[in-house]
Each structure stands twice: as structure tokens, then as C-alpha cells.
Amino acid sequence: MNGLLRSRVLWISVVLVAIAAVIPLGGASIYILGVLTTAYYFGVYAMAWDLLFGFAGEVNFGPTFLIGLGAYTAAILDNSLGLPVPVCILAGALAALVGGVLLAMPALRLRGPYFGLVTLVAVLLLQNAIVIFAGVTGGEIGMTVPNVLSIDGRANYWYALAFLVISGVILYGLSRSAIGLILQASGQDAVEAAALGFNVTKHKLAAFAISAVFSGVAGALYVLFAGAASVGSVIDIALGVQIIISAVLGGRRTILGAALGAVLLLVGAEFLRPLGQWNTFAVAAFALVVILFFPGGLLGGVLRAREQG
Amino acid sequence: MTGLQILIDGFAISALYALAAVGFTLMFGVSGVLNLSHGGIMVVAALIGWWAAGTLGLGVYAGTLVGILAGLITAYLTYFVVVRPIQRSRKIPREETEIFLLTGTLLWGIMIQVGFAAIFSDNPVTMRPLIGGVATIGGVRVPWNEIMIAVLAWVVIGLLWLLINRTRVGKSMLAASINPRGLTLLGFDLSRIYLLVWTIYGVLAGGAGVLLASFLGVSTANAGQLTASAFSIVVLGGLGNVSGSLIAAFVVGYLETVTAYVIAPTLRPIPALILLVLVVYFRPQGLLGRR
Fold first, then answer.
1. Total domains present in chain B
2. CATH number, domain at B204?
3. d(CA B153, CA B43)
4. What CATH architecture applies to the domain A29-308?
5. Which of B96, B100, B114, B123 to mutate to test the interface with A (most CBs of A within 10 A)?
6. Which residues of B touch A292 (CB under 8 A)?
7. Which of A9, A90, A138, B164 has its CA 20 to 30 A from that of B214?
8. Domain assignment of residue B155, yes or no
9. How far apart, in whole angstroms, are the C-alpha atoms of residue A287 and residue A294?
10. Is B134 strand, coil or helix?
């Protein structure tokens, strides 16, 4: 049963990715491609968040702290020093990694709501820092990123899709491996996991580092695609909330569900655009209904079926 | 002069912060719920109060009462639509109730904020002062309204203290925060106590919202910021500890006022945020919290 389902998940994913890969050839407009490109980067944000929350059990209200660090590091190096694009991405990943380790230190000492607040404050401090050092960062207005990944909409789309697929394979593989199980155990009962001889600290630190690197690279790639970085597009708390909604919508502790949730959420929001200001209201209400009535999310049902079977 | 100004302004702001935070902390202490739609409820009270006082022409006092009532109704809605269904859901595992409550109330808060922004726009609204006139204290001119708001906030907090410590229902609430199971064994109806907590909470949050509208002005865009400041004050003081929250409200209120006057208004929230991170690192239970 297990093997069959795993192959079914594999099959469905392969079909979805194949469809996604040929969308640009079907004559989709640059606008639609742009929306999907953004959605794919969102998918990586949500998967990285799910690794921390679903598996390590860490309530992270500030996913945009790590994303913002990666994005702004890449943007500043690109804008002020004109460094080549790969160097910018690497530097973004490193900055996010440092941020992830900084976040991991309180996480190992604090529980639930307290750690949640620290992550929230981390975002607020980063946001304030960007406004204060407006000379380098562009402050509230944001900054342009002159050297972009590509000026071709299709190429950007395929870059994003490839990154989503690679991240998905790595993160999903990790979550199904022994490491994922140990993380899950330490998230649910750290004392018992430690008593069984697992090094909880080491595993949690690893989870933070991995989540941070993927968030940072995704943030860096996003600003290098968009050609601009601003607080509203990579740091704002509302953005973090969207990421959390995506992961919960798709199903926590499923990794792939988080990516699916993110794409559905962003595409759905695009369809709801005629609602104007009520757009966000509708999305939040929908997510609330999912939480109240289907707490497992979209992919949660699939997982439950497997547990019973 | 500036010293006295800081002392007076800081006092008024801190009193309002304290009023907004005690309900939040009481709720956590008694029923274990961290309500992230807190700022949304304050905004509803402020906007409805302003609308009733001005557009409906009921005047400031009736408007204030209508606003508090609106806060109370929104608090009840929060409880019955979001919090209770999550607490009672069989599909949600026990150990995950907390994170579902956080996410659920967060979404609910967004719905309130966006919905009210669509109806009322996100322009800040300011209630007319409850009383007019300006007093002079030691050479500093202070509007009577500011003084009255600070006094009102303290009177309400004092009444709350009396209610909790000197009445039977108050004592049953305290007992519920210590040992809910023991209380049910003694024949108390726990859900009635929770309803009472939400009632007190709704009145406190609504009152704080209306007074804030009268003192500084409120916009729907403030909802997140208001939740964050109540959350940080409550964590700083120790989750669920009412006197801790009062002290923390004054620490944050004065820290912000001093920063705004002495350094720069743009840096206003930063020292308080840094203090919060330091306290959470070195004393996670907060200033007065128990482990």
C-alpha cells in the first residue's frame, strides 16, 4: 500500500510538472506566466516553512525574515556592487543561513507562543532596519535590481519551475527519510525523542538551516526575477501570513501540499481580482473554513487514507 | 519641561496600552487562548463608535457606548465562530489546538481588518474628545481629554481587580486558570466561566479601542500593530499575569515616548522590540511570569 501510494504521488507530481512545463509553449501570455512564476517561488517559501512547522514543530510566524534576508542581500549586492547573479544568489543563501541559525538559538530554549513572538519581532526589526538604512536599501520605496536572471518571461518561468521541482524533491525526500521522522518526533515530544537517543538539538538546527537556505535562495531568485526588491514584496507580515495560509491549506506535514496550496492561493487570488478589496477577505474566509472543517488540508485526506489502509 | 511632557504623555499612552493588554492576558490566563484578532476587535469598536457618534449623530457619549457594544459583539462572534469550534473539533489533535487557535484567530483578524477597510476605507478616524479644554500642569499644556482617558483606564483596571479578587465569579475565574478540571469537579460550569471571560474581554478591548480613537485616532491599518503591541506587552509581563502586564505596559509606553521625544519619532517602536527579544531570551517566563 505504502509503495503504491508513493508511486501514485510520484505519478501525479510528474504529470503536474509536465503540464506546468509546457504551459509557456501553449501561448500563455507573459502576464499569466509572471503570476505563475511568482506562485512557484511562493511554493518554495511554503515548503520551507512546512519543514520547520510541520516537522520540527516550530511555530514560525516570520517566514519572511529568512526570505527577506536572502532577497535583500542579493538585491543590495546586485544594485550597489553590480556583482554577477550567481554570486548574489549564493550570498543571499548565506545571509539567510546565518539568520536561520540566529532564529534556531531561541527556538531551542523557548516553547510555542514565545518563540512565535520572537519570529514576529525578527520580521519587524528587519523591516525597521531596512527603513533606517534607506541609503543602501531604498527604504520604504524599495530598490531596483538591474542585473536580472533573464529578461525573457518564458526563461524566468522555467527557472522558477525547475527551482520548485528541485526544492520539492529535496525537501519531500528529507521529510520521508529518517531525518524527517526524527524531526517529527522531536517536534511532538522533545524529551522523549532525546530519551530514545536522538540528538534533538542537532536535528532541529539542521531543520532551521535547510529551511533558511531554501527560503533565502527563493527570496533572492524572486527579486532577481522581479527586478526590484521592496518591503511589501518580500518582508511584509501580510506576506508571511499568506505563506502560512498556503501551507495550512495544502495540508501541514506534507511538504508537497504546501507548494500546491501556494500555487492555488496565488492563482485563486488572481481570479478573485474583480472582487477588489474583498479579494483578501474571500481568501482568508476560505482558509478559515478549511481550518475549521478540514484541518488536514487538501493533501491531509490522502495521508489519512494511507494511515488507515 | 520636556521631562514633564514625557512623563505626562507616557502616562496616558501607557494607561491605554495597559487597558488594551489586560483583557488579552486575562483571556490567556483563564482559557489559554491567544487571540490574534485582538487588534481587529479594537478597530471595530473604534470605527463603529466613531460612526455612531458622528455619522449617526448620537454624540460622543452614546457613540462610545455603541462602540464598546460593537467590540463586545465582535468578541462573542470570535468565540462562537472561531475559537469554540476549534476547541471542540474532534479532527484537530489536542496538542495542535494551540496552533490552530493562533492561525484561526489570525485569519479572522484579517477578515475583520479587510472587511472594515472595504466599508470604512483605511483612513484614520478620530473621535471628538470626551471633554474639551486644556489644563496646565507645571507649565505643560495637557488636554483634559488626555487626563480623563488615563483616569478612565485606571478606573476600569481597578474595577477589574475588584471583580477578580473580591467577588465569587472572579474567584471562580482565578480557579479556572489554575485548575479547570478541579473546578468542574466542584460543580462549576466551565463554559459559563469562559463566556464570562469573553464578555469581560470584549468590554475591555472595545473600551480600549474607542478611547484610542479619541486620543490618537485609529485606522483599520493599525489592527496588526495593535495585536502585536498587546502580544508583546503580555509576553514581557509574563503570559497570563495581570500585574505583570500592567508593569510591562508602562515599560513599553515610556520607552516608546522617551525614544520618540529624545532620539527620533521614526525609531519609536525599536527599543521596545529589542527589550522584548532580550527578555524572551534570558527570562522566557517574562518579568513576573511563573514557569
1. 1
2. 1.10.3470
3. 17
4. Orthogonal Bundle (1.10)
5. B114
6. 82, 85-86, 89, 104
7. B164
8. yes
9. 10
10. strand
